[in-house]
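Figure caption, in words: inputs first, then the predicted bound structure.
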Amino acid sequence: MVKVRSSEITPEHAYRNRRLFLKSLGLLAGSALLSACAPVTSALTTAPSGGDTPAPGGDPGASAQTDELRDPLTPYEAVTNYNNYYEFSTNKEAVARLAAEFPTAPWAVTVGGLVRNPKTYGVDDLLEGFSQEERIYRLRCVEAWSMVIPWQGFRLADLLREVEPLAEAKYVRFESILARDVMPGQRQGWYEWPYVEGLRLDEAMHDLTILATGLYGKPLPNQNGAPLRLVAPWKYGFKSIKAIVKIDLVDSQPASLWMLAAPHEYGFYANVNPEVNHPRWSQASERRIGELGRRETLPFNGYADEVAALYAGMDLAENY
Ligand code: MTE
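Bound structure (MTE present):
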C-alpha cells in the first residue's frame, strides 16, 4: 500500500483543526487503546484521520439529543472518524480516509441456508421492503470505549421471517464482503477473512436487533459498514459486523473471526458484562467518547430488562 502523507491530502490548517477537534472529544488519547481488539501484534500506521468533515451547524438528522438513559449522542464527527474496521486499517483514525472510495453499489445480500424461501436482496429491496426506523443505541466496544449512535435500519426479524427459517435453523451466520483489491487489511494474513459473526436465532429475532442502513439521518458511511451492518446493542461492538453480503441460517454455532483468532479472549456470546473481565483488561468501566473520566459499564450495556431472559440459567462467565 502506498503511504500518503497527511500533508498531501489535508491542508495543514484543516489538519491541525481536526487534531484539535478530535482531541477535544478525547479521541486522540484513545489511540493508546489501538489494537486492544487485536490479539496479534498489528502494524499500526501513523496516518492521521481524513474522511467526512463535520456537518455544518452541528449533527444532522437525529430525532433526539440523548438515548433513553439521557446520555447525549456522540457527535457525528466522532462516530464517523474513530472506527474499528480491520479490512481497512487497525488505525481507527485512518479508516474513514481509507474506506472513502470503497464501492458499495451495486450490492447484493444473499439470505439462505436452512430457510424455506432463500432470496437475494439489493440494497433498494431492503430499504423499500422493510420498514425503516431510527434506533438510538449505545455501542460498547470490547476495548472499553463507548458511543451513543442514532442508527436507521430495520428489524432483522422482519427479514428472517420473510425467508422462513426451517425448524432445524438454530443460529444465524453473517459474512462480510471479501474484496482484497480494495480492502488493504485483507491483504494481511493476521486474520481469517472474510469477517464472520453469528447470533443464536432467538437473539437474531429479538426486537432490539437491527440491520443498520444509516446513521444520523444519512446513508451509512463506508467507515461504519455501508451499505448494511448488524447492530445488537447489548453485545460488544465486534458482533456488529459491517458490509454484510451473506446471511445464512445454520444448525450449529458459527465460529466468528475473533473466536478463531483468539478463542480464550473472545467468545460467541460477547454480551456486555462488567463482571467478566477480558483476560487483558477490566470490563467494569468504560470511556464514553467525548467525556472525561470513566463511567461504570452496565450489564448487557443497559438493555438487561429487554434481553437478560434470553440467557436465563446460563453461566455468563462460561459463555462469554
Ligand atoms: N465488521 C467488519 N467487517 N470488520 C471489522 O473490523 N469491527 C467491529 C465491528 N464490525 C469490524 C466490524 C468492531 S471491533 C467494532 S467495535 C465495531 O464494528 C465498530 O463500529 P464503528 O466503527 O461503526 O464504531
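The chain has one domain: 6-311.
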